[in-house]
Amino acid sequence: MPHQLTYDCLVDIFEYLYDDENTLYSCLLVNRLCCEIAVRILWRNIWKIYNYEKPHISLSIINTLIACLPKESEEILHKNGINITIISIKKPLLFNYASFCKIISIHKINKMIKLALIKQQSIISEGLENKHIKYLLLREILKMLMNQISSLKALKYNNSGNIYLLPEAKIHLTNLTELKCDSDICSEIISQVCHNLQSLTIKFKYDLTISNGLSDLISSQNNLKILNLQYFKDYDYNKLNLSLTKHSLTLTKLTLKNCDITLPFIAMFKNLQELNLNQKFDKYNILNQLSDAYFSQLKILKINIYLEVYTVITNFLKINGKNLTELYIYNYYNKSLNLTLAKFCPNLKILYTHIKEEESLKLILNNCQYLEIIEFCYDNCYCYDHRNLLCSEIFFKVLANYSQKYFYGLILHCYYRLPLYQDLEKFFINWQDLRSQRPLSLIIIIIEYITRFTENMEDIKDIKMLVEKYMKLGIIKKFEIKEVPNYKLFSEV
Fold first, then answer.
1. Global pTM?
2. pLDDT one-digit tens code per residue, 134-168
3. CA distances from 82 to 75, 119, 129, 130, 265 (A)
4. Of 312, 307, 223, which is closest to residue 266 (Cα–Cα)?
5. Angle in degrees, CA 452, 43, 100, rounded to 5
6. CB crowding 12-27: b at 16 or more within 10 Å, else e
7. How many Å apart are CA 483 and CA 118, to the nearest integer?
8. Helix (H) / strand (E) containing 33
């Protein structure tokens, strides 16, 4: 008689699948126990499933939340001419889904409500303005979530939510550890009750609007570890300089997206362990601040650029490369840069870079002795090998023959074409002969439009059958094909 796994064991297993929504969703259909565990994990941060290219998902989420509204909210909405019974789920709910949420994204709730109103115009009485309806629905949903969530940990917030007007906010925002907001938020109330933020993301508006309470919000934090600034400029820095300086020695992770800061900024965070730079426009010169900067604790560097900054990155790697364990260089290719990282980053465990030559790949694999995982843009592989370019067959052959004893993971980013079946099979055979004691982990990342073509679906089916064969032989331990939305065509920091 088969033994059923205990509740605690299933929780541990499903927690491991937190970022794999498709597998978690399939777990809902196994049995009642699996469903109860999986649904709690899925709804913890239900907003990450949001995809504007798949409106039926957003409608399902917002309709479920509306169905969870208490009688009091239903009466308030009914008095204001909103008949929610038309769009709410007809069947009785199996769970109180709202109580599983640990994160609130007001921005995405707004988008979902807007979509619901477009799809279900019949819920609105004549004479009512759409803006008024959206506000009422948002207010009641936020009120419900605030009352249902015992300990709110993360909030994605803009002024449209007016969450500071809710009496429930002062109670439930006390334990907030992550906040994402715009620079013009009315942050006075939040700064009065939130003092334990560990992660803060601020998107600065183009009109240079900064709320009066934003500096107080930053200064009032006791344990800020992660800071993410978007569209941050010299003007903003001058206004927030003192509050940011307070965290100069305690911040461990800094992310800058399309920032334009000519003043010395990055180097003041002496104890950074992770630095992410996402600079897409050549007028930004913040990367120049890296040239001579030294961070004794830096372990992870992610750079997403479209600029010719080879000299800057090279100098930075010469100074900081020895300490790095993870390096990601997106949307930028330079042969000399690859040779530099092979020489000055010997302790890398994870690497993403564009490689187009056999020589560069061999040097990286030989010199980075501790390398465990390579993320590789497969579209860089050419189907021919003249001019010493790296074709897919050579790539897999070099990887099997030159990888060191710690290597086990390969992540292929396939935005335009899938790996060739024959090349993969040869790779698995070589790996079996040369590295039989180390099972492989293979992840293939594709964008959704690839699956719209029959020939690609056949290729995916063949690859899955091939991998299944080698999983049975113990050559492959983990395999996954991840689909990303079309608008995420290129990786971002």
1. 0.83
2. 888 888 888 888 888 777 788 887 655 555 556 66
3. 9, 14, 11, 11, 50
4. 312
5. 170
6. eebeebeeeeeebeeb
7. 28
8. helix 32-44
